[in-house]
Amino acid sequence: METIISSEQLTYLDGLRNETDPLILEMEDYAGKHRIPILDWKAAEFLEQLIMAQRPDRVLEIGTAIGYSSIRIARKLRKRGILHTIEVSKDNIPLAKSNIEKAHLEEKIKIIDGDALEIMPGLKKKYDFIFLDADKEDYEKLLEMSLVLLRKRGVIFVDNLLWKGFTAAKTVPKKFQNSTEHIREFNKKFMSHPELKSSILPIGDGIGLGVKVK
Ligand SMILES: C[S@@+](CC[C@H](N)C(=O)[O-])C[C@H]1O[C@@H](n2cnc3c(N)ncnc32)[C@H](O)[C@@H]1O
Hints:
Blueprint: H1 7-16, H2 22-33, H3 41-54, E1 58-62, H4 68-75, E2 82-87, H5 92-102, E3 109-113, H6 116-119, E4 127-132, H7 139-149, E5 150-158, H8 174-192, E6 196-201, E7 207-212
Parallel strand pairs: 1-2, 1-4, 2-3, 4-5
Antiparallel strand pairs: 5-7, 6-7
This protein binds S-adenosylmethionine.
């Protein structure tokens, strides 16, 4: 089991896609060939729609990888909007920088180099929108840190909550058992968190969407 909807439905949705942007297609191709996980294109489109509707001034992303979702977010920000994106991998940061330069978004995207668990407690100014997409084992801690930094009525968007179908599966391959357990625990907390109005949506690999209610 590797996808959360059937391959027939995926093929159908892929057939409706009309992406022509060469940089977006190049990054998807690079990520696929080098097995770097990036946001599924359908989830990326949904993320862009939320950015367009909410019009956040300050966005925080946790997990930049090669800058795919960073670029997609930054392109939909209004003129004064900025994105801060935290990345711990020394291999990924130069790739993200190069893609951000190709997209001419150096003014809109600031990469913060380091571990989000160490960096976030030092961030002081609130964010309007936070995208959490880091190691699944750290999701619970990163959620609590995110909620400190998210303003009231701000939005948190979390990737991989249906985790290739494993969170709902009776049997899980050994390699995914630990991460699946972490996401299952995370999902219970996310859906019952007193500071959030939350949903888990079957888009991409499962998107958690929360609005901070207090
Ligand atoms: C799924 S990828 C991010 C994909 C990216 N958001 C996209 O859709 O284009 C996860 C990234 O998070 C980074 N990461 C994992 N744990 C982290 C942490 N604690 N702090 C900062 N980055 C982290 C990994 O190095 C990896 O590049």
